[in-house]
């Protein structure tokens, strides 16, 4: 049992436990729940919930799911096994099964839900093109633009496979490639591989949607890792993309978080702000609050946002100056979400599905908002939701209603001029390491020989990306249990974090992925230079 001891001084108290989880974020309560369920009373686990909510929590609309045992048991086993192939859905299914929660098809397999793919793409100059296929097919581009954009996406997928999908120990050349990608920016990579401005702007929009920051602030390696989690970069704009739909609509998060919080309620303690974290005799970790209450444990699992660590004094043995520097300079990803509601879905009357992709803005990406009722029936509201073009932090409270309505009127006609309701909210659920920090961050958060503190949940998406938060908490649980009870984790728990992607393709695709206009022009230039050099040498030799 958790040991509590009252101090002789008024208002002072202390708590001793085997493991303390600092922070009640979704990764934190996943870690605590798994430890509690696996080890029970044989391991003392405490969750410390700080009094004030974290700054910048994602404001995402929630939907209610029909929650009973009969409905949950209707999940088809074959469909479940098929979806396990997608890493981003694996954790959703795992915890849905544990808590007997049914997940709608719109989340698990949106491609299998019948709907009209009649979307609108808007160019930088304001011209619009309808498209009947998924956005990532780019049918609306010119032949040359489509070719180089598809080639670039294939190239990204190949880099992803080469860097992350290897079962053997990376070679020296592979390590150098890893470091190369980490020391270059995404913007430089885009400009080095894409020739046409439309293709570049589309990729920049994709990077903003994925990371919440401009391409110049994202390392290629960090972006590739997000593609790796989502089975390839070609799923980010539409189709079977899970991450954006989760972040946008908040599917499943509210109910899941409620179930997890109920599970750990009896081991959750309210605490004042933490002042410092230190060690004692190299055997314990001690957390002290500002009113000098103490919490003592054998191992501390951090589940705070990186910016929440700024006001906590952590002993260098637990957080080295180099690692503290990495945490301090992690950039918060930032997007603005909008929701606009109308009396009727007039876009469907005109044959459109309500889905938008624009590189002009202010709307960058939008879909028609589905609603699930408490009875399990499905219907659609006359409502569009999506992301707005990134704005500077000091302007994040600026309301873009007039610009959004103007854009929708241009796309769908005058019916869009009179909405019933409009709302914007900030989404700040991702922290992006600096371009040169990603390798060090991954190495640090994946170490299993850290004796006192588990930092794995720093390398995470926040609650907006449900599968990412579940992944962070599950991985932290595995590392904590491996330190305290090496034989504790089951095969199913360990195999859950073993990523396998479905983007290998055939040999011809993998070879041709490296061919694009930029590389082609470079090859022509080098070939011409070699040819001219050979002719000059021959001419010189003939003269002599």
From TrEMBL:
Reaction(s) catalysed (UniProt annotation): a secondary aliphatic amine + O2 + H2O = a primary amine + an aldehyde + H2O2
UniProt keyword Membrane, yes or no: yes
Gene Ontology molecular functions: monoamine oxidase activity
Cross-referenced InterPro entries: Amino_oxidase, Flavin_MAO
Membrane topology of the entry: Single-pass type IV membrane protein
Domain (Amine oxidase) ranges: 274-475
Its EC number(s): 1.4.3.4
Record field: transmembrane: 517-537
Keywords (A to Z) from UniProt: Membrane, Transmembrane, Transmembrane helix
Subcellular location: Mitochondrion outer membrane
Enzyme class (EC, first level): oxidoreductase
Name under which the protein is recorded: monoamine oxidase
Species classification: Eukaryota, Metazoa, Ecdysozoa, Arthropoda, Hexapoda
């Amino acid at each position: 049992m958790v040991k509590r001891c009252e101090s002789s001084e008024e208002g002072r108290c202390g708590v001793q436990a085997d493991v303390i989880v600092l922070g009640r974020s979704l990764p934190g309560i996943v870690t605590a729940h798994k430890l509690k369920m696996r080890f029970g009373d044989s391991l003392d686990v405490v969750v410390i919930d700080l009094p004030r909510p974290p700054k910048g929590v994602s404001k995402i609309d929630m939907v209610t799911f029909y929650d009973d045992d009969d409905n949950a048991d209707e999940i088809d086993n074959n469909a479940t096994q098929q979806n396990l192939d997608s890493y981003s859905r694996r954790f959703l299914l795992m915890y849905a099964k544990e808590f007997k929660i049914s997940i709608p098809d719109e989340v698990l397999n949106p491609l299998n839900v019948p709907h009209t793919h009649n979307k609108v793409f808007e160019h930088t100059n304001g011209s619009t093109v309808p498209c009947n296929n998924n956005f990532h097919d780019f049918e609306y581009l010119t032949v040359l633009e489509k070719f180089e954009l598809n080639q670039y996406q294939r190239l990204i997928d190949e880099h992803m496979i080469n860097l992350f999908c290897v079962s053997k120990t990376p070679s020296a050349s592979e390590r150098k490639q890893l470091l190369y990608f980490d020391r270059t920016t995404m913007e430089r990579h885009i400009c080095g591989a894409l020739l046409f401005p439309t293709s570049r702007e589309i990729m920049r929009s994709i990077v903003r949607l994925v990371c919440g920051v401009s391409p110049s602030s994202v390392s290629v390696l960090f972006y590739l890792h997000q593609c790796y989690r989502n089975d390839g970069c070609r799923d980010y704009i539409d189709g079977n993309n899970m991450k954006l739909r989760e972040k946008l609509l908040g599917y499943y998060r509210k109910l899941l978080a409620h179930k997890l919080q109920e599970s750990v309620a009896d081991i959750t303690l309210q605490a004042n702000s933490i002042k410092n974290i230190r060690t004692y005799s190299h055997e314990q970790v001690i957390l002290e609050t500002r009113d000098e209450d103490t919490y003592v444990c054998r191992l501390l699992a951090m589940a705070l946002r990186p910016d929440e660590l700024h006001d906590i004094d952590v002993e260098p043995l637990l957080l080295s100056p180099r690692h503290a520097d990495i945490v301090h300079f992690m950039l918060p990803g930032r997007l603005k979400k909008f929701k606009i509601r109308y009396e009727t879905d007039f876009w469907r009357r005109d044959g459109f599905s309500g889905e938008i992709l624009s590189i002009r803005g202010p709307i960058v990406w939008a879909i028609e908002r589905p609603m699930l009722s408490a009875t399990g029936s499905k219907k659609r509201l006359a409502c569009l939701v999506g992301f707005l073009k990134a704005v500077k932090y000091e302007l994040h409270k600026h309301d873009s209603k007039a610009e959004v309505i103007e854009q929708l009127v241009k796309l769908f006609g005058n019916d869009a001029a009179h909405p019933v309701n409009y709302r914007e909210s900030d989404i700040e659920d991702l922290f992006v390491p600096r371009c040169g920090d990603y390798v060090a961050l991954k190495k640090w958060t994946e170490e299993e020989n850290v004796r006192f503190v588990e930092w794995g949940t720093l390398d995470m998406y926040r609650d907006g990306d449900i599968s990412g938060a579940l992944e962070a908490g599950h991985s932290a649980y595995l590392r904590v249990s491996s330190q305290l009870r090496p034989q504790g984790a089951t095969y199913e728990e360990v195999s859950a974090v073993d990523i396998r992607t479905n983007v290998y393709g055939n040999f011809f695709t993998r070879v041709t992925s490296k061919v694009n206009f930029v590389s082609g022009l470079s090859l022509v230039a080098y070939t011409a230079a070699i040819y001219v050099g050979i002719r000059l040498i021959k001419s010189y030799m003939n003269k002599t």
